[in-house]
């Protein structure tokens, strides 16, 4: 029924581009007007913008991109025996570190720190005992001030450790 409407010749020669060239030459004025149109410029901008966007998205990747199915990879963590596991491999898990060496503290520093702590605790207790608040607040305030000023004055800067005039103060 549609055979009589078929205008395409089934024995047509393959297109070598000459028909396209003929079309472009006959309609060149119309195509140049189209190329200069606002819609064409807008489409060109949109096409350039799409080209600049990333070509690969994380959603496009599957797990096979990162992990080989079945294991047996060639990465640095794929080995069964590592030097990091040598303690477990040798069975030598008896090492226990000793207590850290804090060093000696000066008596004055300890006294000023205790005075500061007692003063701060006394200021907190003032809220809970309003009957003795004036006396407790005075004593606690004085202890806090003396302790804080004492600790501040006992701070040692890096100037005592600098012997070289070219020392920039960097410490490891």
> Pairing-aware structural class of the strands and helices?
mainly alpha
Mean pLDDT across residues? 76
Count of distinct strands: 0
The gyration radius over C-alpha positions equals 43 Å
Terminal CA distance: 93 Å
Major sheet? none
Q: Which runs of at least 5 residues are low in confidence (pLDDT < 50)?
A: none
Provide structural commentary:
The chain is mostly helical and 172 residues long. Among the domains are: 23-54, no CATH class; 107-156. Helices cover 47% and strands 0% of the residues. It is built from six helices and no strands. It has helices spanning 18-26, 28-35, 38-52, 86-90, 107-128, 133-153. Helix 5 (107-128) packs antiparallel against helix 6 (133-153). The longest helix has 22 residues, at 107-128. The chain is elongated, with a radius of gyration of 43 Å. The termini are far apart. The model has no long low-confidence stretch (mean pLDDT 76).
């Amino acid at each position: 029924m549609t055979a009589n409407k078929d205008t395409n010749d089934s024995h047509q020669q393959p297109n070598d581009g000459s028909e396209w060239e003929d079309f472009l030459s006959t309609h060149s004025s119309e195509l140049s007007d189209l190329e200069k149109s606002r819609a064409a410029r807008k489409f060109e901008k949109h096409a350039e913008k799409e080209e600049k966007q990333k070509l690969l998205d994380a959603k496009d990747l599957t797990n096979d991109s990162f992990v080989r199915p079945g294991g047996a990879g060639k990465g640095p963590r794929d080995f069964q025996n590592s030097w990091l596991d040598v303690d477990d491999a040798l069975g030598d898990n008896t090492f226990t570190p000793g207590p850290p060496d804090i060093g000696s503290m000066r008596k004055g520093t300890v006294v000023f720190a205790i005075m500061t702590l007692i003063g701060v605790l006394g200021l907190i207790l003032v809220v809970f005992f309003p009957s003795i608040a004036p006396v407790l607040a005075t004593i606690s305030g004085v202890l806090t001030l003396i302790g804080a000023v004492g600790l501040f004055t006992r701070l040692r800067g890096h100037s005592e450790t600098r012997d070289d005039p070219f020392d920039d103060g960097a410490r490891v």
